[in-house]
User: Fold this.
Amino acid sequence: MSLRSLIDNPDEVLASWPREPRRYRRDPASFEHLLTLADVDQLIDSGCVATRNVSLLKDSKILERYTYADGDMPRRGALREHLDSGGTISLRALETLVPSIAQLYRDLQNETGYGVHVNAYLTPAGAQGLKYHYDPYVTLILQLAGSKAWPVHDPFVTNPVREYGSYHTNGFTDEQLQFLANTPPKATYTLKPGDVFWLPRGYVHSPYTVGDEPSLHLTVAFKERTYHWLAQQLAEEVLAQALVDPSMREEVQPVAVTADPSDAIQQMRVYLIGALIKLDAEEAATRVMEAARRPV
Ligand SMILES: [Fe+2]
Assistant:
């Protein structure tokens, strides 16, 4: 199942990644082959979901004490108990558990060249897993069963990535918390089965179930390849090619690395600028395209 079948105007999206939330509507039956409530019930009660594939969430916290109670596998019955007590279950890296999702994962990764992960969230009626937060990548929400509301605020951070500007590292400032406590969301999207919701990175959200049914959705995360990533690929290529040059394998004198590296640094600065300018454009393009499609 490709991105083409999940969203409208896929060519436009692949050429110009949307930076505003969007909702697409699909036939709910077209998601049935991916994951159903019955599939999730079976996974939860079968005792064959490893701890690396599950997170238990409640009141915006991750409850590891349940998941790690029995080594590699959750304690028998812990997942069902958690759900019965109003907790949310997140099944992680579903591409390693469910064949149809493994196919979806491969298709999306190949199509976008972005890193992909696919998680499912099952939240009981009247409950909420995570409160206000934001993610460092776009998420595509596929609503499979029940209904969930997504109140959304504009990003506080431009282009967050995991290593910089990430909510999970930085949290909110007091000012941001004040804003969230006193400002109605810019928009609230209430998803029904078959809805696909595009939530760009950085948008602050706080989803909760609506109605009497549990909510089940898939979250497909696309970890965007950034200009920083591209620069890293070029630098790695330059350094890989540099190894064939004996003068680059020469030792830097101990005194230079411990007391005065300035001459050696200047020498390498000139070398790197020259090497980047001389880098073969076609080889660099091949390297980048291969790296983009390598699973992360
Ligand atoms: Fe999120």
